[in-house]
Each structure stands twice: as structure tokens, then as C-alpha cells.
Amino acid sequence: MGFEMRDSFVRREECKAAWESEVEFAEMARVLKALAVELGQDTDAALGELAAHGLGAALGVLAGQAEVSGVEADYLRRRALSRVEASRLQ
Q1: How confident is the model at residue 80, as a pLDDT?
Q2: How far is Cα 72 from Cα 69, in angstroms, rounded to an integer?
Q3: How far apart are CA 62 and CA 17, in angstroms?
Q4: Does residue 76 or residue 6 have the better pLDDT?
Q5: Residue 6: its pLDDT value, please?
Q6: How many CB atoms lie within 10 A of CB 2?
Q7: Which residue, among 57, 88, 90, 87, has the nearest Cα to 72 in the 3D structure?
Q8: Residues with Cβ < 8 Å from 41, sequence gap 6 or more?
Q9: Which residue has the higher pLDDT, 6 or 31?
Q10: Mean pLDDT for the chain?
């Protein structure tokens, strides 16, 4: 019986980790899309790069398209604001 309880716990933790990863990816995509709109850039290119190669590549695409520095700092600022707004809703 102890073995079955352990398996149940492990599966639950795996599901929780997968859910948290999915929520984090959705948050990254939402913030990245808002940043692309703010910079007047194509959102599809940035989101496609996020899905294919990760956040660093997506920020690189935005920095290259906008030819501005500080894209990563802008992303981090927007993400922090997004988390503050989300915590107010809870």
C-alpha cells in the first residue's frame, strides 16, 4: 500500500510540474506579445521563435527588428508588472 501511495504522489507532482511549466510558458508568451506590440513589431515572428528556440532567441528577434537595446530589461519589467497585476486578482 505504501508503494501505491508513493506512486500516486509522484504522479501528482509530475502533473503539478507540467502545469506550472505550461503556465510559465503562457506568461512568457503573453508578455512577449505585449512587448512586441509596444515596440511595433511582428508578434508572430517573436512567438514563433519562442516556441522553436526559447526566450533568448525571441528577445533577439525583437531586438533585431526594433534595433533597440534594453529589450531584455523591458521584458523583465513587463513580466514583473504582469505578476503584480495577477497577484491583485487573487
Answers
A1: 93
A2: 8
A3: 29
A4: 76
A5: 67
A6: 6
A7: 57
A8: 62, 65, 66
A9: 31
A10: 86
